[in-house]
Model the fold of this input.
Amino acid sequence: MRKKILAANWKMNLLRDEAIQLINDFNKEVELSSNEIEVVVFSPSLYISEISQLTDFKIGAQNFYFEKNGAFTGELSIPQVKSCGASQLLIGHSERRQIFGESDDLLKRKVDAAVESNTPFIFCCGEALETRDAERHIEFVVNQLHASLFHLDEKQILLGAIAYEPIWAIGTGRTASTEQAEEMHAAIRESLSYVYSPSIANQISILYGGSCNAKNATELFACPNVDGGLIGGASLQSETFNQIAKALI
Ligand code: PEP
Done:
């Protein structure tokens, strides 16, 4: 049985005191038994150390560099974020790909670094609107997975989860329909099954991300191949995040 995962991506939001307040609110309001759902909070890295001591939820790093240490001014390594309390990594978010120019090849190296350090990660993929309009969305997303993820072996791939995040739905208020989400999630699972095996494909959680909120979460999470969500804007309020969590149970 694969895990249900609910991940909060706080992005570059919240001052320190606000982040502390929000994690305390999550502690009080997000009602779940950790056996049912794994909750991961991708906090700004500056706050990981403090926040990870205030909660039992898993804390993750939104970004890292693949080298372990050295002359990489401004970067953070996996050993560094782990030493501060991060236990998960986010890789391949479209904002990293588009704004910071992260290539398939760089993402492959990040995936390898996550595996080498034995750190669970969520690998993001998703197409732009033009690609969907050209009906090339499935081919595009499957190519992203081949380019940066599918070189892993059967044991290694099990460390990862995949988040399908159509770029046109991120932060836009426009969500994929249940048909669009299920079509893509089923295609991703089929690719996993083809490259690895049906058994491996059934063990890997595939999350949906892109304007997921308290109103649309129930129907999205009811799709057979949607195993949770990666939540941006709606994770900045504990009440909304809790409603999304309840939709996943
Ligand atoms: C995200 O950035 O991963 C995301 C899904 O954002 P939002 O929920 O705000 O669309």
